[in-house]
Amino acid sequence: MPQTILVTGASGQLGRSVINHLLGTFKVPAERIVAATRTPASLSDLAARGVIVRKADFDNQASLAKAFAGADRVLIISTNEIAIQGKRREQQLAAVAAAMQAGIGHLLYTSMPNPEPGSPVIFAPDHYDTEQAIKASGIPYTIFRNGWYDENLFMAMPQILASGQWYTSADNGAISYGSRDDYAAAIAAGLASDTGESTTYTLTGPKAYTAAEVAALVTEVTGNPIQVIQLSDEALTEGIKAAGLPESLAKALVSFDAAARAGDLGMVTDAVEKLSGRKSVPLKQFLEMNKAALAG
């Protein structure tokens, strides 16, 4: 019997990309795909293509259970609620409980690399606790530990290029950046599969880069030189706060550098290629394709 696939966070960038790959790359019939979101009206284009659209609110476990009803394979895309400590954990545990209540056959989840206790990343416990809840649920699962997106560079790079200076505390720690679309293709492959085995994949780009190496690539692509300046975590936090960002966000950003410095974000795997059947986009090629976005 054909399986019904449900994707939460379907109005977000990753959710939409996953659904587009289900439809286009893996030829899953639209009537077998459920797009779940808090804002169903934002998915009118997918509804017009025959995708089933359901309302699902991570702050309302009953709405999640209702949305999950009848789905065979459910992808929980981690929420972006990181401003309030513990909020995302609460939402995601509610989603796991709703999946159990709905009796789904396979649960998939987007986590992060190395979320185990001791990770410097402030929100790592959200992912670790969700992974543990999934494993304790008894539902067969696939966990995708998504590496850092290439697109994350767009958040700070316009300011870095404008000033010519990149302040970091990552030292020589490397990050295996990968494109969001590559990760989405791999996740869609896992969703479209009929496997019932429980598995954890770490999704990464094809190579890990230090800040200095990324700066050199950006300079090569844009022609604008970048000086990488290493700071302590404390000095970097104060500098980010002085730039106008709230302390909670400053601490989160600095925790990424600390994780890179600790070697937690530099793992390189071939999981994207194995799952999706396509080569990952190298970082330099991605930067060349998105040169305008680098400058903001």
Descriptive account of the structure:
The structure is a single chain. The chain has a domain at 5-150 and 178-205 and 267-280: 3-Layer(aba) Sandwich (Rossmann fold), CATH 3.40.50. Helix 1 packs across helix 7. 45% of the residues lie in helices and 14% in strands. It has 296 residues and is α/β, with parallel strands linked by helices. The chain is globular, with a radius of gyration of 19 Å. The strands form 2 sheets. It has a 7-stranded parallel sheet, with helices on both faces. A two-stranded parallel ribbon has the order 7-9. It is built from 13 helices and 9 strands. The protein has helices at 13-24, 44-48, 61-68, 87-102, 124-137, 153-163, 180-192, 211-222, 233-242, 247-261, 271-276, 283-289, 291-294, and strands at 5-7, 33-37, 52-55, 73-76, 106-111, 141-146, 165-168, 199-203, 227-230.
